[in-house]
Design goal:
Helix 7 links the parallel strand 6 and strand 7 (about 205-210). The protein is α/β, with parallel strands linked by helices. The strands form three sheets. It has a seven-stranded mixed sheet, sandwiched between helices. Strands 9-10-12 form a three-stranded antiparallel sheet. It has a two-stranded parallel ribbon with strand order 1-11. It is built from twelve helices and twelve strands. The chain is globular and about 60 Å long. The model has no long low-confidence stretch (mean pLDDT about 95). The chain starts with a strand and ends with a helix.
């Protein structure tokens, strides 16, 4: 579509040319099942493992630690269910800690586990959209099996104190007879514009997604630190080292690998552009709109959360679309929902204010004209 300003990259980014090329080559030339032992199958396996190495490099993991999934939702489910369900099945007490800022695939999964007997603590953020590391650490109990914290909010863009939480867990359990809980980091949005990986934050479990970084939809990855045992949530032929059965989406994984490689080589330049575009976008806001997150609060530069007091966000997004500007009314994972965002409400906003918040998110293909179009369209819509 021509003359479109696409500012919904946090929902899904366009495909990078490198990813499209890699997908076509895999689907066209290496179409055999990667689990087949004949020559064509092994050729497909070779290219799949090359892509695994590219994704592993982005994740700061060994290739053997990468489990491919159908996306971040499945990866988050595997991380949580794979840890919690065996303990519940054995009849033992089990507790988990997470935050109110998490993606629905984390919060809803924990809620489902609560119905089976999980005890859950959901840590609330401050009004700045950031949880305090001490609040997370104080919630940990003897029976805590997993601590799951999003690295960067997909809705409001705030960066969470991941390294402080990891250090606190290490310090608390150093020399203790108690079993240290596993640390799961949902890094789907963070890796887009932050130099963060599984090794740097010493995560036991680490989630990323292809279509947020310029790869295809329908493929994600869970980094699983060596020595961590997860019960599979999909059983069958024992693919992905037994962690995730089902024939791998080889073409999608090829696109994922190419996007991961491109992001690693271009991220510094892309981040610099995000910073400039963010400033330009904010400078162009009309009087009826203002940033939700205060200046100086740590955020990823590619996500901008904007409050439009007195207006409904879905109405604003619809009118923006008619002007050729694509933005979002919160998370796209709750399509069609008119409920106020639980993430935004966790900052202390009432329902009316929460329903006035829209999100503009930048991507590798974003340009100055997109930021200008956003401000220009908002000026037509808002008083």
């Amino acid at each position: 579509m021509e003359n479109i300003a696409y500012l919904d990259n946090a929902a899904s980014s366009p495909m990078r040319p490198e990813a499209l090329e890699a997908m076509f080559a895999q689907a066209n030339g290496h179409y055999a099942n990667p689990s087949s032992i004949h020559a064509l199958g092994q050729a497909a396996r070779k290219t799949l493992e090359k892509s695994r190495g590219e994704v592993a490099a982005l994740m700061g993991a060994d290739a053997s630690e990468v489990v491919f999934t159908s996306g971040a939702t499945e990866a988050n489910n595997l991380a949580i269910r794979g840890v919690i369900e065996p303990i519940l099945d054995a009849g033992g007490p089990v507790h988990a800690v997470t935050t109110a800022l998490e993606h629905a695939s984390v919060l809803k999964t924990f809620e489902a586990m609560e119905k089976r007997g999980l005890s859950l603590t959901v840590v609330q953020p401050g009004s700045d959209g950031i949880v305090r590391a001490d609040d997370v650490l104080d919630a940990v109990r003897d029976e805590t099996a997993i601590v799951s914290v999003i690295a960067a909010s997909n809705e409001i863009g705030t960066l969470q104190p991941i390294e402080a939480i990891r250090k606190g867990l290490d310090a608390r359990f150093r020399g203790s007879d108690m079993k240290k809980p596993l640390f799961h980091v949902d890094a789907v949005q963070a890796v887009v514009s932050v130099e963060m990986d599984m090794r740097s934050v010493r995560a036991d479990l680490f989630t990323i997604s292809a279509h947020k970084i310029g790869g295809p939809k329908g493929v994600g990855a869970l980094g699983v630190r060596k020595g961590v045992k997860l019960a599979p949530i999909l059983t069958g032929g024992g693919h992905e080292g037994g962690a995730r059965s089902g024939t791998e989406n080889a073409a999608g994984i090829a696109g994922f690998g190419a996007a991961a490689s491109a992001l690693r080589s271009k991220r510094a330049d892309e981040v610099a552009r995000y910073v400039g575009l963010r400033k330009r976008l904010l400078a162009g806001l009309p009087p009826g709109a203002h940033p939700l997150i205060a200046e100086g609060v740590p955020v990823v530069p590619h996500i901008v959360s904007i409050e439009c007091p007195g207006k409904e966000n879905d109405w604003i997004v619809l009118l923006l679309s008619r002007e050729g500007v694509m933005a979002a009314a919160g998370s796209a994972c709750k399509s069609g929902s008119r409920e106020a965002s639980s993430v935004v409400r966790a900052l202390g906003l009432d329902d009316a204010r929460a329903r006035s918040v829209i999100r503009a998110s930048l991507g590798f293909a974003s340009e100055e004209k997109d930021a200008d179009a956003f401000g220009g369209a908002l000026k037509k819509i808002l008083p």
